[in-house]
Amino acid sequence: MSIIQQHTQASLSDAWRTINIDALDPDSSQNFDTSTLHPPLPEIGEAEVRQLNAQVRQLLRGGDAEGALRGCLESPVYNGSDGAKDSHMQTVVEVLQSIKASEMTPMLQRIYGSEGGSELLDVLMKYLYKGMAGGSLSGGRTPTRNLTPQATGFSQVGSRPGAMNESTGAGMSVLLSWHEKVVDVAGLGSIERCMTDWRKV
What we know:
- The longest helix is centred in the last third of the chain and has 24 residues, at 163-186.
- A two-stranded parallel sheet has the order 1-2. A two-stranded antiparallel sheet has the order 3-4.
- It starts with a helix and ends in a 5-residue tail after the last helix.
- By secondary structure, the protein is mainly alpha-helical.
- The protein has eight helices and four strands, in the order αβααβαααββαα.
- It has helices spanning 3-6, 46-61, 65-74, 82-98, 101-113, 117-132, 163-186, 189-196; strands at 43-44, 79-80, 147-149, 155-157.
- Helix 2 runs antiparallel to helix 3, helix 6 (117-132) runs antiparallel to helix 7 and helix 6 crosses helix 8 (189-196).
């Protein structure tokens, strides 16, 4: 009699599969709370974002563009409503657009050389990618439908074709310029950290 014939149906049961070996492993995720891997982020309300944006704009009006940029980057809105995130994004883009191209690299080098500078540039990279993805480039205003009566009796909606994209294109150009400068200063690691970070702006 061969060994295969000696095993009965009962001895070939799948009972060994019911043992949860992960519960016996001390490094298993079942033995600790996985929510501790991502500490809770404080929720930032729209009122707090408006106050922060007012402070940043005050610094910008006072001529302290670097302080305004640091103010935006030191308190990113990770946990908040979409309105709060969009409002802060609009302020970041406003600050970036107000800085001259010749001041970009020296300012980024000063920020990068300071304590926590690498993380600040990673936050900036997150805002750049969010802006390039289509967030708040047009200043947060939604386009209105302007009907212009024509001599032919038909109405023309809006202005000439592509006029709406001009401001978006200018904003995109600013974001791409900043992206290039951030990569020059912080390296490609900034892109990798931005893409793999679970905190989103």
